[in-house]
Amino acid sequence: MRSTGTHHRHRRRSTDRSTQAIVLSLPAALVVGLLFVVPLALLVWMSMTDWPLLGEPSFVGLAQYDAILDDPLFLDAIWFTLRYTLITTVLLTAVALGLALLVQQTRFGSGFLRTAFFLPAAMGLAVASLLWFALYSNEVGPLSDLLATLGLVDEPVNWLGTPDGALWSTVLMVIWRFAGFYMIILLTGLQAIPDQVYEAARIDGAGWWRTFTGITVPLLRPTLALVLVLSVTGSLLAFEQFYVLTGGGPDNSTVTVVSTIFRQAFTLFDLSWAAAMSVVVLIALVLANIVQLSLIRKGDES
Amino acid sequence: MTATSTAARRTRLRIVIADTGALVTGTALAILFLLPLAWAGYSSLRGPDATGEGAGFGTENYRRLFSYGEGLLVYATNSILVSLLTVVGTVLISVLAGYAIARFRFPGRNLLFLGTLAIMMVPYPTILIPLYVLLSRAGLQNSLIGLSLVLIMFQLPFALFMMRNAFEAVPREFDEAALVDGAGIPRTLWSVLLPAVTPGVITVALFAFLNSWNEFIAPLMLVTDGSRYTLPVALAAMRSGNFGSIDFGALQSGVVVSAVPCMLLFVLLQRHYVRGFASGALKG
Questions:
Q1: Which of A141, A211, B134, B243 could bridge across to A135 with cysteines, CB 3.0–4.6 Å?
Q2: Transmembrane region positions (chain A) (predicted)?
Q3: Which domain does B14 fall in, by range?
Q4: Which residues in chain B are closer than 8 Å to A180, comparing Cβ atoms?
Q5: How many domains does chain B have?
Q6: How many CB pairs under 8 A join A and B?
Q7: Are residue B190 and residue B95 in the same domain, yes or no?
Q8: What is the value of ipTM here, to two decimals?
């Protein structure tokens, strides 16, 4: 009898506690449900309807998807975004790794250097783009004057005025803005490599390059992979840097996928078209993430 | 004896050379990284005409920024409000849910955790269009509260992950003793557990602040009323000449005003930032 009583009391207390736990997680559940799950479902629904800004939406099935895949502007945007992603990821990872190796050891000045490299990453991407927009401007920016003073150019450089110029100027700004950020991630990976491994290599008489390719890179693989995933995902979604720096120009040469979605939705008010594009991008990125993450896992196990 | 000491001396010499080389290269690179920032600060103080030769220094650019569009104060207030709402909301929601998930078994526990983490898998610009429609229907479009709710949702995966780990790192005996003594869940959470997870709370708050203060695409899409613009959106409007021709001097002071708070916070709290990255990104 007595044991049943305790049992009952125990059960009541645990149901009580689970009710309270549900109450505690209710705000989170509401946010996730109303602001993530519902919009996600609505996105798919919108992509299959004709959704005017005013008036009633009507179901059109997969017609939007047919149309966007024939849209030359969207295909150009995909091509440009892929090119930008490749260039940015390669250069950014190389620069970030170089910086991380440079400040890896704690010695005089390394704390200051880490902070200096990271500081650009503390400012917003849009604001960083605005800063470089002024830097590149021949009206107020010092860059052309500087190159002219050094005797490297004869006339002002048209930084953002040609398709190639606009692309590479943006890449330079993005490296400046993100290198310190990726450096910090790589540093945490470098610090996880035990000192003994390096000591063993030194005793074996391995030089800097042998140590780097034989120890640092293989042991840093999971962190490097994380940096690659972050850079690829971030670059595929590039928007601010082009919105602010180039405005998509010159001649639509720097229009990214997200710029296209933004323009369809908020300049041309074609919400269902933009929704269908978003679904395509979403599926592509989720697939890319799954592939990349499974590659990292595999690398971890081997 | 002599051989070893010569070798030792040579090793020491090599270390000194390597250290000096790294310091010199590092300093040169650091200058390259800092120059654009220094230039923004410098040209924000040039005046009255930012292009004028020998125009001298002054706060004229900042004064013009004050009267640009709706005025700096309006945009800065909007940014501060949105960031504060996002920080408070993110911390509150993730502390409550993180505690529940770390300490109790209840129906829907795994669903909530995995569902929140799934937000990270979805590229955020893609769900802004349905969010725009939903907020419009709810009368929350053009509202700073609506914008903050969206930003809280984007912060939640990292925040919940951090807080769950922070609570799990605290020994159970800690709070179970308080619960058995009849303290009740709210008091146990407030006076026993919260002090123990404060570093996690600081990390979550820091990330939420930096991300919401710097967020661009969400306010650009969800807020169309000029008087509700946040700082970055207002500055981008200045750049496209929405308020007249481009005033580069005022633009530079805007860059300084929006960048300096983030840099100060980062320099003060960089330990938390780095630790947040180590536990949030790498193990995640």
A1: A141
A2: 21-46, 82-103, 115-135, 166-187, 219-239, 273-296
A3: 3-45
A4: 33
A5: 2
A6: 265
A7: yes
A8: 0.90
